[in-house]
Amino acid sequence: MKHKHNQFDMSQAKGLDAGQAESLFSRIGQSFRKSHQNEQRETQAIDAEEAKRLVDCFETANLGWFWSTDRSGRLIYISANTAKAVGKDISELVGSSFADLFETSENDAEQNRSLRFILTKHRKFADIPFKTADVEEDIWWDLTGIPQFDRDGEFDGFVGIGKDVTERICAKQEESRLAHYDSLTGLSNRALMSKKLDSTLSAFKQQKRACALLQIDLDRFKLINDTLGHPAGDTLLKNVADRLMRLLSGRGEVARVGGDEFQVLLPDWDDRGELSDLADAIISSLSQPYTVEGSRCVIGASVGIAISPFDGRVPEDLIRSADMSLYAAKGAGRGRFSFFSEKLLEAVNERKILEDDLRDALNRNEIELHYQPLVKSKTDKVSCFEALMRWNHHERGSISPGIFVPIAEETKLVLELGTWAIQRACQDAMLWPGKVRVAVNVSPIQFADPSLPKIVEQALKSSGLHPDRLELEITESVFLEETAETEEMFASLKRLGVRLALDDFGTGYSSLSYLQNAPFDKIKIDQSFVRGSNKPGSRNGAIIAAIVALADALKMDTTAEGIEAHDELAWIKSLNVSQIQGYIYSKPIVQEEVLGHFGSGEWKIEPEGPALQRDDRMSIFRKVRIIFGDSYEAAVVRNLSKSGALIEGLICLPERTKLVVDLGDGQLAVATVRRTNDNQMGVEFEQRLINDGFGGLCTRRRVSPYLIAAAGLPDAKSVQLAIS
Ligand code: C2E
Ligand code: MG
Ligand code: MG
After folding, report:
1. Confidence label for 53 from pLDDT (cuts 50, 70 and 90)
2. Residue 138's Cα: distance from chain center in Å?
3. Nearest ligand to the C-alpha of residue 524?
4. Distance CA 655, CA 672 (A)
5. Ligand 1 centre distance from Cα of residue 111 (Å)
6. Rounded CA gap, 453 and 451, in Å?
7. Alpha carbon of 34 to those of 123, 132, 154: distances in Å?
8. Considering the entire predicted model, what is its pTM?
């Protein structure tokens, strides 16, 4: 029998070259088979004894092993070493099916790559790796087989060689794992995620299915990495990966795509209500404290959400949209999520312009302080004012601190603005009655600045304000890095004699341990915590009561923020909160107005507001379309809440009429007219809107552009389709 050398690659059989090995093999094969079959035929081959000796030598040198089967694929010969390696006795193996010794993956079976199939072909095969079946550890053999034919040319079984290639295969598998998985967290890496995104989107395009992509970025991770060291950072990332996996539990694909960046792919997710719930859950889970190498640390997370096909039909577009939403979420103050919308593109540009303008704002005298009263809850008398910064932009008019303070923080301009605010507030407060305090917000960036105590001292000195009348409002984010500097800062501020208030309690991690460790004089309970605390099922009421009790015991004041309606006021008063701040008493006012109220030396405010707290209404001006019957009319939304809208337009429909409000971007809200007057109608939505994570509202679902395209026309037709 003649074989070509390359078909019989025995180069692994060190010491024997391929030519030697071939002839050796051929000789051994033939003679050994014959001796086994007890055939007495004379051959040109070496005798059985010699063959056996050579086989033994070859096998014991671990160069490989021989195998031989009969025509039905049953083993005739297998080396003792091999039998041992697969944990079987040689007598068990001889006579059994050779193919059964190896595993057949589904894939192999489908593609006719199983050994069983190959053996049926009666053709040569070389160096095909197979995994041993029924053994605990992975053992891989490379098999080479040569069919044997008898004198009549009838197939007579196989003779072959096997080599242990476990090490090589495992190394290859590891290499491929490393190429596709993140070695630190075990999650898919960017390359694998990008493949999955690619295949999902192209399949879904055919099937007209939707899918969501979440881009997650950790807030303040860099800080932990820099201060606690890289091993700590690594542990933290592993914890983050665990939390994400637990949260998503099979609902989507999670990947780590960069240092502290993660991606989640959610096939068939397009309900923005469910997505916002999930994003909220992710943010709150990742924001829980971590214990890393004995120290406690807290990070945050921001999430950008893009949904295909709406926000991109190919991976690049969808990723760009998700990235942009993430950027928006971070820009809006971090710890938030944001859906993609065209508005974001504008917002990104806007932000750049604002950032430039903010640098000149102080010089242009565009920054002001307004003062909002805090009243004693027992007497309704004003005991303090919170200084709230206002920016009167020369072109845009008033810009909310919710927008410009985060920009100021990112650009460090907050140091300059903050210093100005402290000085200004001290000067203004000097003109108020002697016991009335002023509270100034201090950004964590200012708090981390070692010159803050000096700045405060200077402001007190130059204005002459008694330190006890100045209160600094600090948010709990200053505890995120509980360092020696934090403690030192608290101590130096307390040495100056100023008061410290913990602001926005209830919005973040709300750990009561802050209260024990830091010298606060007041806790300000955030309006989001207060809101709805009197509604059945809310546990916030009980928590507020507990905070008040604790604060009383620690001799701290408590302030409830954002009280607007009488029902809330009564409830908050019943919880014994010591001070109240909110529109029900007064909005923030300018200094002249403050001075005007102190004619008699004190200012008692009569609370004034709605009887009941309602859904936050947003005063807006938004162009929409109203769909009713065959008409599709332009209109303007003046007022929007989750449950309804005030719409102004040419058409005014009678009460109880059903219509559809097209809010743009495929957002269609089915609504019923509840009130009408002149050219305005108040409508109630059938399904409540939800927060878009960006301060606005959106519908839970959108009409797919596929549907819109299918309807042929961009607007009204598709809408009819969607409602029917
Ligand atoms: P904050 O310190 O929690 O201030 C309270 C916010 O709640 C103020 O918003 C106030 O106008 C608003 N508010 C008070 N009562 C009610 C109410 O009954 N209903 C509603 N809906 N809102 C109420 P504002 O002035 O827009 O300030 C927002 C945030 O901007 C402040 O939250 C504070 O974190 C920051 N900020 C304002 N001024 C400064 C400043 O001078 N320095 C720094 N670092 N941050 C500032
Ligand atoms: Mg405040
Ligand atoms: Mg607050």
Report:
1. confident
2. 36
3. 3
4. 8
5. 66
6. 6
7. 21, 28, 16
8. 0.55
